[in-house]
Amino acid sequence: MNYRFLLVGLMGLLWTPILRGEDWQQWRGPYFNGSSDAKNLPDKLDEPHQLWKAPLPGPGAGTPILSGEYLFLTGLDAQSKKLLGLCLSRKDGHELWRKEIGNGFQMNGRNNMASPSAVTDGKTVWFYFGTGDLAAFDVEGKELWSRNLQKDHGAFNVQWIYASSPLLYRDKLYIQVLHRDVPPHGEPTPSTHADSYLLAVDPRNGHDLWKVTRPNEAREESKESYATPLPFENDGHAEILLIGGDSVTAHDPGDGHELWRFGGWNPQKINHWRQVAGLVAGDGLVFACVPKGGPVYAIKDGGQGDVTQSHLAWRSTEVSSDVCVPLFYKDRLYLLDPDRRTLSCLDPRTGQKQWSGKLGGDAPFRASPTGANGKIYCMNEAGDVWVVAADSFKVLYQGSLHGDRSRASISVSDGEVFVRAGETLYAFGMK
Fold it and tell me: What are the DSSP calls for 9-44, one per residue?
């Protein structure tokens, strides 16, 4: 078993919570790539494998975050219109506590203010919302600090509602705001001009550690990004990776300065190529999905300055993903095309397609695929779920949880799969 804790058994010492193997503490999991080493996971997400289900107060696209005996979710109360931080029991799904963190009843057909996922280190949980409300609590529900980033750093100029999740890495909270330099609606004024930026926050007290401007030459909506910062450790160095504004950039985790930049996929400066799909990395490569069904790029990590010409490993027009973040699992790259409803497996070193298959269903996919225990878990917007074998395209299970607006990625831990379908949270396992 993979233990990530120290079990203290001496009488008189404080009890330390046990963290289960491969807890899912951030939105793309323990390796930041959608995969986990979790074992004993069910092949089917059906009633015989259902451990419990719990109603949620309203919709949200935040992934279930797991640590020890706790589940954390961001949510929107459909009645009060409050933005909520939720803590549920992992054992049976009953609500342990909820906190009102902000007001933000704004939604459209694609998004609402409760889209960012929570993040935890097992002792503290941080909730973040599209309003800019950011708050920290201990796992028992005691508030440690709160603030609003829009109040401190200016409005988010995002047309389809801000949705980036915070990243906890090396004792810093990293938050990206890649947006337009003017509001998407109304007449701009000199006072409304805004730069895109990467912000580092001290997770202990919420204070800013530093803020760096992240320039770009994109136009209008193409400046917007809904992705989340990605940490990548390769060849003895670490980076924070961002995508948006027609480019990928790597930043020093210590002070945020830009290390290298890759772009060139929008030479015509088309003004509506907003970035939704985030990055994934592995094998010394960074994988980027260009908006609007564009190519997938594999970028060799490293270098300095503009590496657009020097660091392209491969480019594929066979596959694409406008929304779903790719999965890097067992040295393979998986892409879920949200509108064609196709799952493909690629060799990450060459881009050569290993296999591809049609999932089907009537709704598009917005949740990103999850890989663990030799399986890939997928869900579409209607709450239809698929379990696919990871080594070849073999559908092990297809069923429906009937959850409208299901956009939260599935999370897993040893023996358990957690699915947020519509306004219900499900736990599945091997009974």
Answer: --TTSPPPPPPPTT---STTTTTTSSB----S--S-
Please enumerate in sequence order all residues whose Cβ is within 8 A of that of 167, keeping only pairs 6 or more positions apart, or say none.
26, 119, 173, 174, 175, 228, 229, 230, 231, 240
Confidence band, pLDDT 50/70/90 cuts, at residue 131:
very high
pLDDT at 250 over 60: yes
Please state, for a pLDDT cut of 90, what percent of the chain lies above it.
Answer: 85
Q: What is the pLDDT of residues 181-231, one digit of tens each?
A: 988 887 766 666 899 999 999 999 999 999 999 999 999 999 999 999 999
Q: How far apart are CA 52 and CA 60, in angstroms?
A: 20
**Structural contact between residues 359 and 377, judged by C-beta atoms closer than 8 angstroms:** no
Model confidence at 44: pLDDT above 60: yes
Residue 51 CB partners (closer than 8 Å, separation 6+): 416, 427, 428, 429, 431
Q: Please give the Cα distance from 120 to 370 (Å, whole number).
A: 19
Residues of the chain with pLDDT > 70, as a percent, come to: 92
Closest-CA residue to 121 (of 65, 186, 51) = 65
> Looking at the chain, how many residues does it have?
431
Query: 365 with 378: CB under 8 angstroms?
Result: yes
E-strand stretches of 90-130: 95-103, 119-120, 124-128
Pick the CATH number of 47-429 from 2.40.30.110, 2.130.10.10, 3.90.550.10, 3.40.50.2000: 2.130.10.10
Residue 79: what pLDDT?
85
Calculate the alpha carbon distances from 76 to 100, 104, 131, 167, 366 in Å. 10, 8, 12, 21, 19
| Interatomic CA distance for residues 387 and 404, integer angstroms | 19
What is the per-residue pLDDT for 80?
A: 87
Domain spans of the chain, in order of start: 47-429
Give the type of residue at 309. Answer: Q
The DSSP code sequence of 372-390 is: ETTEEEEE-TTSEEEEEES
Write out the H or E segment, with its range, that includes residue 150.
Answer: helix 149-153
Which residues are bridge partners to 285 per DSSP?
282, 300
Residue 152 DSSP code: H
pLDDT tens sequence across 62-99: 999 999 999 999 999 978 889 999 999 999 999 999 99
pTM of this structure: 0.93
